[in-house]
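3.2 Worked example (two chains)
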Amino acid sequence: MKLYNKLLFGAALLTTVSCTEDFEEMNVSPNQPANATSAQLLATAQYNFADNIGDEWNNGRMGMYYAQYWSSTQYTDESRYQIREGVNQTMWNTFYADVLRELVAAQAIEAENQVVGYENRIAIAEIFKVLTYHYLTDIYGGPIPYSEALNDEIATPKYDTGEEVYLGLLSTLDAQVAILDEANPGFGNGDLVYGGDVAMWKKFANSLRLRIALRMIDANPGAATEAIAKSLDPSNGGLISSNAESALFRWIPGAPNNNPLAEAFKTRIDFSMSEPFVEYLQKYDDPRLMVYADPLLGTTDSYVGEVYGLEAGDGNSNGDPKVVSLPSDYAIGETAPTVILDYAEVEFMLAEIAARGIAGVDGTAEEHYNAGIEASFEAAGLSDAQYQAYLAEVPYVGGDLETAKDAIGSQKWIAMYGQGIQAWLERLRLDFEDPYTGEEIFVAPAGGSVDPDVTLVPFRMSYPVTEASLNESNYNAAVQAVGGTNSLGAKPWWDVD
């Protein structure tokens, strides 16, 4: 019955979703929900995932605030770290029920029918499950339902530790990369990220494995280094190596399938550019500012960021574009894609790997640092001349690992604008400062944090309160594992500095 319900949900949703050029060919009658195909279920899962990580709540009021890309224009509670429990519950439920369950249902259909290429399609769905669990475990600080989460026979699944989840994800990626066979088909039009390109799913899996490995490298360097070596081994299929290969979810104009941030901005202006972000871009004459933000109304080149974390009513702009710069269409346009993992991030990961002296990287840390900035400029539609001029302002500085992390981290942060959740997590991991002055880039909320356990930035999201009653014993064990309290101030397991 659970599987049937998810088939029903997937088929009903896909009658309204049109996210690729040929997507309408996949639509089915809502009167025939049981005929949902695995491709439709994959598309539903991808849509739900992109919406969950890219919407005004989890991206706008969590990720974009915690990465300090945006400030609040009037309702400031979230920028001062007071969460809305209903939003938190919805995020958790969406990842499990509306993404992972859709993928399980797609895999079940493929396993039953065994049409040519079914191994590829099961593997692609499994890679997307890895991506989803990766978000879950990092957002919630480590322990989550994982090994028992999708077992219909277990009503109260245990919480695996963060390290157990990570090792499981790496093992799964190893297996799926080995399974993917470019001689056989993938999902075709049902794949809204790579259009059925099996080779690209290999590159994505290897690139995701790099992200997971670097996230854990200070906590488990042995396992991380082993995973990095596998991703760098060209026999495993390579990495994302151009902007054209970036993993993106592409929205289309018009509700309900335009970028969810665009939809939010149609009725109200709750977000402005953040003062720390704007001032850092201005500090080094970064032309990406004019791409990421709109100038003040009535000007062509005046940009002002809103003070971060103001108390409501304490000088807030109320979204007045004559007072504060608002986000541009780069992030909030109807067709602005939701980035899952892009080429610039891959280059910055390679730069860090080289800076750490790990074998297997072709090129130096400086070369990959430069390539990461260049990729970001290209994605922003800026010229090579602008890139070269900017690079002269922010040359790579290494010398020691901490300085290298400051240089790489600060530029990675700028390049990841729009990817609030991942940028926040990398902010926590790299803990970078201005590499040239040693000054702090981030600030505490001007109005003070309303969470007694958080001063500068939350380290995790608290578990939904319903878990305490629905899965009490396992919830209690998970809370003990993150420090004894379900707190936003408990560091994730991989943050050992």
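3.2.1 Second chain
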Amino acid sequence: MSDLALLSVTEAADAFAKGEATAEAMVRACLARIDAFDAEVNSVVRLDREEALAAAAAQDKARAAGAALGPLAGVPMMHKDMYYRAGRVSTCGSAIRRDFVPSVTATVLRRLDAAGAIDMGTLNMAEFAQNPTGHNAHHGDCHNPWNLPYCTGGSSSGSGAGVAARFFAAALGSDTGGSIRLPASICGVTGIKGTQTRVPRTGVMPLSFSMDNVGPLTRTARDSARIMGVISGKDPLDPTSAPEPVPDYEAALTDDLRGLSVAVPREWFFESADPIVVATFEAALEVLKSRGATVTRVSCSSLRAIGTYVAVVSRVEAATIHANWMREHPGDYSVHLSGRLYGGYAIPGTHYLEALSRRGPLLRQFCAEAFAGHHIVATPTLRMRVPTLAETDIDADPEANWARHMAVSANTRPFNYLGLPTVSIPCGFDDRGLPVGMQITARPFAEARALMVADAFQRDTDWHARVPAL
């Protein structure tokens, strides 16, 4: 391949392992692409150019010496600017933390380092990871590489846009209400939110105690499987991380969907959905059927309550985390973020406790409704076509844009409340050449099954392989 920046995670790792490409050459190719195009996209916050080249040179030297290689050796990556690396600024997309230098390194970054990945720096994001569109009043808005006036999805805006633009092979994002899956869908890449507690959150900026998730945005489901195998698993520094064994996600990727039953909920996910989104999703279901899967429409009466409770939990927990800063630095927040946080203080504690106490019963109810006799749940990731930045800018016009802004994440939020593993993959493009995404959800700790279905779909389609013409 003439442009090494176009290699996926597994392609880059394999090329490096076989001696077909050096880590330094791959990093330089990514740097050249960033230099050429990121002024338009605005995905990068901090580019650690010299550090990345030094790390790549070290990987090249180790390979030449015959050292054992990690599963991500030589792979260029960048990450949402909320993953702490000791000694380097992490702004969290905010003015308040513009000069914050952590003393710890996130567990997931340490695991990626140990696997041989090359960290090239940090990426743009919504302020404190709190909006579904990716707007940022402090670092400037990130732009969709498929069509620059359109939004990228948030809050992992730079992660989605940068992977789509081929600035690096993969990126970590975070997902509290859809912030991995939304930019994955809107930018035409693959993104996974694992089961709640599957990936440790040590050294990652918190937003919601009970709904934050760490996960990758990549080109393919196979790429996500490889990264999830590296970053998942119990962390003694994170008491909330799950002790369940981590399977070999990549080994679970088979192309045989015979006997697989797909449930499609009738409620919630298609309310006021754009006809083009629905048609694209239905065409994607036909691909799964061609692989041997069956598709059944199911009724999920639990979704209305889930949609209400998820808003209560996320707002109260975010308001609690930000309480001191809201008292001491209220003027440093953007208008829309202040509005969301202040709303959290008005929710009675009894309502919050009710939302928490109903979580287990609603999870059981949803699983009984959706997974009884079925292996996965499939839905559109967004109900709408990709909106423009102007159409969803609530700082500029909150009255006109608020409803559209919040509707972006309507289909992703329920799975954060339920804690279920969910993958978003590109399943087509709309009439304006912008991506449409499909969400694949599995039972708790069944990430391997969701990734297997996503990979099988990608074996028969090329939506994930298309590159925006920057």
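3.3 Remarks
The mean pLDDT is 97.
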